[in-house]
Amino acid sequence: MAADVAGLILAGGAGQRYGGPKALATLPDGRSFLTACAELLASGGAAPILATLPPGFPSPASPGLQALALPSPGLPMFESLRAGLERLLAHGRWGAVVILPVDHPLVAPATVAALAGCGVDAAIPAHRGKHGHPVCVARRVAEAIVAGRYPGPTLRDVLRAVGTSVVEVADPGVTANCNTPEALAAALAAVPPGRMQA
What we know:
The chain is of the alpha/beta class and 198 residues long.
């Protein structure tokens, strides 16, 4: 696995469908989604790790996790992505960045490592043929996003423009979008026992 991989957690949403910011939602073991995401990225080899957070969000307690408070609530996700990438580009000479929405806290660290080791412009995981998260992009792609050469309006548009490698993984966590309490319960039923700790 490449040793120069950064991690970006997109956690700036209000979490209206969850009943509050999903960064504060908890797994059965008591960890917040934000903490779980930071731990799985770190276990997969990512550093530095940054989270974009809503304005006024409490400082995260996870060791090694940097926080970027967004300038306003309800910022479009692509703008949140650009802000996070801009901050990360100012710190370290990493060669790729793994981008993880905070509502995907069940991803296996091995998936992070597999994506980061691809050495391509962009890579996404798939489980049983279904695409999921996180996404990994090369530094040059991150620089182009920040510079406005890939204007979006979504990350999917950027991936379409650069061409993306699909990495098949034995990880149901990549398609487990825990964006409501009901979705979390369903996702937990599909994750193998023993996977709760990163």
